[in-house]
Amino acid sequence: MITAIVTGAGSGIGRAIALRLAADGHAVAVNDLDPVRAEAVADEIRVAGGQATGIAGDVSQEADVAGIVAAAESAFGAVGILVNNAGHVHQARFEQLATADFDRMIAVHLRGTFLMTRAVIGGMLDRGAGIIVNVASQLGQIGGIELTHYSAAKAGIIGMTKALAREVSNRGVRVNAVAPGPINTPLVMALSQDWRQRKAAELPLGRFGEPEEVAAAVAFLASPGASLFVGQTLGPNSGDVML
């Protein structure tokens, strides 16, 4: 059993990842900004026979991050898997973007990934073992109309993933990312119907993905079977990006 933290796990992709890692035998610290949602997912895991604890906290705040990691370690021991999934969505044309909207997007996605990773990586390096999976987006690879700030934040996560992997892979810590396409989650459903219709028409597979399909990719990267994957970005994206 490995202790895993999944951020933003109160719904959508994060919830699916938490459930999958628990099913794979890991003890899961379920983080969400909303304590009720975090505890609800932890309850799902416990009812199914797994080990989990719900932890509220904002990954963009250093004090909250310290609390999240401390609570996870208190419950289950040293963190061996970190999935940086916490997300935020806001839609606007670039010329209409307020500085506050841009800053919040970067704070949740990029700063949050940095803070959470920094909080656990020291212990991972000391033990010579650890797995970090960052949830990016295909929009970080190709960009998205009315989502410039989101695309920028996700592109930053992909760049961070590659750079960190070069630093720590030879010390036992594997760092990779997944870049999902549009997935049927509350975040995507919050985008305009026009945007969703246009995006669906572009996909070679002809459909949006499901959270469980992204969770499968994360579970693979967290498994021994992915031992040769270093600094990679897997694309469960319905064919939106082909590399």
Give me the secondary-structure topology.
Elements: E1 3-6, H1 12-23, E2 27-32, H2 35-47, E3 52-56, H3 62-76, E4 79-84, H4 99-127, E5 130-135, H5 139-142, H6 148-168, E6 173-178, H7 186-189, H8 193-202, H9 211-221, E7 233-234
Parallel strand pairs: 1-2, 1-4, 2-3, 4-5, 5-6, 6-7
**Count of separate DSSP helical elements:** 9
Helix content: 40-55%
Structural class: alpha/beta
Integer-rounded radius of gyration = 17 Å
Strand content: 5-15%
Overview of the molecule:
One of its GO terms (molecular function) is oxidoreductase activity. This is 3-oxoacyl-[acyl-carrier protein] reductase. The protein is built from nine helices and seven strands, in the order βαβαβαβαβααβαααβ. It has a seven-stranded parallel beta sheet with strand order 3-2-1-4-5-6-7, sandwiched between helices. The longest helix has 29 residues. It starts with a strand and ends in a 9-residue tail after the last strand.
Provide keyphrases for this structure.
single chain; about 240 residues; alpha/beta; Rossmann fold; seven-stranded parallel β-sheet; about 15% strand; globular
